[in-house]
Amino acid sequence: MKLIRSENQKNNIMKKEKEQKKNKPAEIEKYHDEKQKIKDRMKKKEFEKKLDKLAVELVKLQEWIKAKKLKVVVIFEGRDAAGKGGVIKTISSILNPRICRIVALGVPTEKEKSQWYFQRYVSELPAGGEMVLFDRSWYNRAGVEHVMGYCTTEEYDEFLRSCPEFEKMLIRSGVIVIKYWFSVSDDEQEHRFQDRINDPTKRWKISPMDIESRGKWVEYSMAKDKMFAYTDTKQSPWYVVEADDKRRARLNTIHHLLSLIKYEDLTQKPIKLPPKKIDVAYVRPPKQEQTFVPQKY
């Protein structure tokens, strides 16, 4: 009898545990999910090791672009704090700034507002032997300008019609156009905003526009979907980057970029330096005559 009772008690306890697990508050589950995501993120040491290998390939690509006079445009778009700037910084820090150039245009002037919409971007396009990284681009009109009401409905509709044609024209003229959209979850975006607020060295990254845009998550999502519907073409497709893990996003983007342009290794062979010549007749001026930076550290 006792055995039967204990079995019944055991079954009841298991049943209650299942019910508790089933009715677990969403907040607790969300907390554990976030904790697991953080745990699964790539460690810095692993990231740096993999980046070192990709850096060598990026330099090879750079030399190929220079030698073959290629014209490469790479567009980085996405929500605020999605990680676009970090990827651009990672790529540009490896390459020669005379070959790899960053374009991050500010608010258009009154004169620029009166011009053909694409005009100020055309002047930033690469010459032969250059790669230009656009930190936001002409797609401002499909996102920020449309959602925040900085352009008219007619201007927005005209952009959606003309943008695919504009990009086809660039491609026909020999420009390689590559477009990346950085996708970040609302929770991760919120975490990054808070990190910027709490860190004085990052606070400049939050603009009044970012604060004003916080209440328009759905509107931005709808704008992105419509933009893709019009501009995600076979000739110029959008490549979506999962960007909740910054380090993985950077590596994945660089690896994918390298895969899109066929290149060969044209990097210089190791250079043998000639022996240093010492002119015994040369006498250096006294150090006291020079002005030095104070050694505070």
How many DSSP helices? Answer: 12
From the spread of the alpha carbons, the general shape counts as globular
Please list the strands of the largest sheet in the order they lie side by side. Answer: 2-3-1-4-5
What summary fits the major beta sheet? 5 strands, parallel
Q: What gyration radius follows from the Cα positions, in whole Å? A: 27 Å
Number of domains: 1
- Portion in beta strands: 5-15%
Helical content class: 40-55%
The total beta strand count reads 5
Q: What is the CATH homologous superfamily assignment? A: P-loop containing nucleotide triphosphate hydrolases
Order of helices and strands: HHHEHEHHEHHEHHHEH
Name of the level-1 CATH class:
Alpha Beta
Question: Any idea of the CATH topology?
Answer: Rossmann fold
The stretches of 5 or more residues where confidence is low (pLDDT under 50) are: 1-5
Global mean pLDDT: 90
Architecture per CATH nomenclature, i.e. the level-2 architecture: 3-Layer(aba) Sandwich
Q: How far apart, in Å, are the first and last alpha carbons?
A: 81 Å
Query: What structural class do helix, strand and pairing data support?
Result: alpha/beta
